[in-house]
């Protein structure tokens, strides 16, 4: 049995369709969600985190239906969730904020709870600022504070929306290590715009666009789809969908190469750009015809 | 196989309610937040200063029960309303996070209601201090044989009921009302609006020329009258038309109703809450009628 099973899931906000007929199964390991803004990544994560109910389809998390109060509570007992954006109540220190959330996650024994709070603060490198007011923390520190609360109690399902946003390279490296360890036993779902994070962490990638799944599979399979479509040249090529001057002074082109192109190994970012770009082209052609 | 999968394969029983241990831990945390709130700390400091001033001015003897209970009700009850309102709405900014934890909103509301006991206990401490001071240094009357300001020969049970109602219970009721208002009207400015309503609802019916029913229906029922001559309080008497013990029952039921109203904001346990609310309403009506009979 998978930890998460979505079947024909749909969600709309008024007239806007955020998700349309999404079917997914997720098990232990790290899965990355990629997609442009408005693709439906956050909506999927919010459904997995029981913060939002699907309009259509069936959702099973840990075998439970989150639409029922019982199911929702059971799921929440195994869940760690870090939303993309959150505010912070006034008057809390970093330690007391995590401690309060730990109580809300049913850590009633003060001794073990404080030990756990110290552990997660250590994991995200915030042990030094534990006595500081949350209001006095930097943006990156606040981001890590949100991640710390998600890690409380080593949850079986970890849902992280843009976990590396606002973190410096060293903090991102540290976080990758933490998430890598969590992914050994738990089901970890991360949504991000950073393809390098997905490439570094995830065994599986799901690409969403306009509420639909464009790709669901291994990263190597997605990357292989871009093979023969990335090349270097001295000038910008007209057949390239995307082209940019690199640090070497040469131009990296992604798209349909000319016959004499100097092909190079594609990266995940190239494959993602091609996939989303091709889907947009297909839709333009469909609407034109 | 992961622990999560192993657990997922086992049929899970219905999710139990929030455990007593969790509720207790949460209530302790909320009580700490309440006790550390500047709007609680400052009034407490002010209360202590006023007690000392009162003690020095009266040379150790006597406390004016009207002024003392009014000070408790204002500094702990009215300020408590604002504190409880703020604590209740403080997690709104974090609702995406706290909306996905196993402890539901209703349990958090109950925990905040329990935290309001901090204010009630502070009020009780002030009332106990008042009793001790008056027991150790009885106020001198005019003529010296008659006690001034301290209820003369009224039964102790009536004196206690009045002091509890106008002191500690007012200190508890204000914050409980703050929780209920914050749960039902969490918009910006509702705390200020609530304070204005609270003060007006106290001031209008509390004036001396009103009858017992109006006084009892006030947000802060005043059950005593002071008899002043040449600016000096000669004696304190009870309002003849109100029975203090039943009045205490009436205000206790109102406090209970504030808790029920706050909890009814969430759909869980609605049946139990409606029954409790009905029982408390009946209790309040009976107490009100008996207090005036």
UniProtKB/TrEMBL annotation, chain A:
Keywords assigned: ATP-binding, Nucleotide-binding, Transport
InterPro entries: AAA+_ATPase, ABC_transporter-like_ATP-bd, ABC_transporter-like_CS, P-loop_NTPase
Domain ABC transporter: 4-235
Presence of keyword Transport: yes
GO MF terms, alphabetically ordered: ATP binding
Family: Belongs to the ABC transporter superfamily.
Protein name: ABC transporter ATP-binding protein
Species this protein is from: Nocardioides panacihumi
TrEMBL record, chain B:
Segments crossing the lipid bilayer: 38-56, 68-88, 109-137, 157-182, 189-206, 245-265, 272-292
UniProt KW Cell membrane keyword: no
Taxonomic superkingdom: Bacteria
Keyword Membrane recorded: yes
Keyword list, A-Z: Membrane, Transmembrane, Transmembrane helix
Record-given protein name: ABC transporter permease
Source organism (scientific name): Nocardioides panacihumi
Lineage of source species: Bacteria, Bacillati, Actinomycetota, Actinomycetes, Propionibacteriales
């Amino acid at each position: 049995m998978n930890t998460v099973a979505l079947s024909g899931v749909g969600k709309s906000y008024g007239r806007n369709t955020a998700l349309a007929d999404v079917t997914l199964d997720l098990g232990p390991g790290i899965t990355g969600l990629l997609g442009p803004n408005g693709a439906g990544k956050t909506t999927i994560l919010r459904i997995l985190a029981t913060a939002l109910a699907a309009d259509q389809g069936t959702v099973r998390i840990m075998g439970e239906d989150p639409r029922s109060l019982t199911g929702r509570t059971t799921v929440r007992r195994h869940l760690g969730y870090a939303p993309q954006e959150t505010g912070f109540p006034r008057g809390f220190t970093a330690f007391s904020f995590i401690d309060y959330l730990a109580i809300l996650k049913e850590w009633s024994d003060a001794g073990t709870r404080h030990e756990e709070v110290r552990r997660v603060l250590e994991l995200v490198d915030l042990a030094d600022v534990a006595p500081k007011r949350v209001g006095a923390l930097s943006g990156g520190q606040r981001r890590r504070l949100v991640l710390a609360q998600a890690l409380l109690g080593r949850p079986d399902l970890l849902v992280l929306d843009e976990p590396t946003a606002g973190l410096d390279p060293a903090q991102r490296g540290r976080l990758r290590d933490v998430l890598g360890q969590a992914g050994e036993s738990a089901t970890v779902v991360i949504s991000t715009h950073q393809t390098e994070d997905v490439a570094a962490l995830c065994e599986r990638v799901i690409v969403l666009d306009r509420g639909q799944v464009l790709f669901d599979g291994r990263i190597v399979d997605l990357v292989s789809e871009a093979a023969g479509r990335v090349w270097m040249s001295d000038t910008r090529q007209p057949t390239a969908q995307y082209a940019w001057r690199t640090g070497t002074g040469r131009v990296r082109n992604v798209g349909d190469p000319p016959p004499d192109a100097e092909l190079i190994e594609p990266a995940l970012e190239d494959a993602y750009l091609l996939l989303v770009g091709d889907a947009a082209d297909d839709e333009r052609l469909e609407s034109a015809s | 196989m992961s622990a999560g999968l192993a657990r997922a394969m086992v049929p899970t029983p219905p999710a139990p309610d929030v455990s007593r241990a969790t509720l207790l831990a949460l209530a302790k945390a909320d009580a700490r937040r309440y006790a550390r709130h500047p709007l609680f700390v400052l009034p407490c400091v002010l209360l202590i200063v006023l007690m000392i001033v009162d003690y020095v001015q009266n040379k150790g003897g006597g406390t004016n029960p009207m002024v003392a209970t009014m000070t408790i009700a204002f500094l702990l009850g009215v300020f408590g309303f604002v504190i409880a309102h703020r604590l209740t709405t403080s997690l709104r900014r974090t609702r995406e996070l706290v909306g996905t934890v196993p402890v539901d909103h209703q349990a958090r509301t109950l925990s905040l209601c329990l935290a309001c006991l901090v204010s009630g206990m502070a009020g009780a401490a002030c009332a106990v201090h008042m009793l001790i001071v008056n027991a150790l240094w009885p106020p001198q009357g005019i003529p010296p044989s008659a006690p001034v300001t301290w209820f003369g020969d009224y039964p102790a049970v009536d004196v206690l009921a009045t002091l509890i109602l106008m002191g500690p219970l007012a200190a508890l009721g204000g914050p409980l009302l703050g929780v209920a208002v914050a749960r039902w009207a969490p918009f910006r400015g509702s705390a200020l609006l609530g304070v204005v309503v609270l003060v007006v609802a106290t001031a209008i019916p509390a004036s001396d020329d009103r009858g017992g029913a109006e006084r009892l229906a006030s947000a802060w029922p005043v059950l005593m009258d002071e008899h002043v001559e040449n600016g000096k309080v000669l004696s304190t008497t009870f309002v003849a038309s109100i029975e203090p013990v039943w009045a205490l029952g009436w205000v206790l039921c109102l406090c209970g109703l504030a808790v029920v109203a706050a909890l009814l904001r969430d759909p869980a346990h609605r049946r139990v809450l409606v029954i409790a609310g009905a029982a408390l309403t009946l209790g309040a009506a009976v107490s009100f009628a008996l207090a005036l009979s």
